[in-house]
Amino acid sequence: PFNEDELRSNAPQVITCNEYQREVAVSQNIAGKQFDRVFTFDK
């Protein structure tokens, strides 16, 4: 979760975790282009 400074500066969320679908999504912004990568995991 974001801290107060990150919320105030409207920082982008770069990592999201979905435990139900067992995946982690990583968002990157490189040279003005957004790249999303999804990694699946098992327990």
UniProtKB/TrEMBL annotation:
PROSITE patterns: KINESIN_MOTOR_2. GO terms for molecular function: ATP binding; microtubule binding; microtubule motor activity. It comes from the Eukaryota. GO terms for biological process: microtubule-based movement. Keywords: Motor protein. InterPro entries: Kinesin_motor_dom (IPR001752). Residues 1-43 form the Kinesin motor domain. Transmembrane segments: none annotated. Belongs to the TRAFAC class myosin-kinesin ATPase superfamily. Kinesin family. This is Kinesin motor domain-containing protein. The lineage of its organism: Eukaryota, Viridiplantae, Streptophyta, Embryophyta, Tracheophyta.
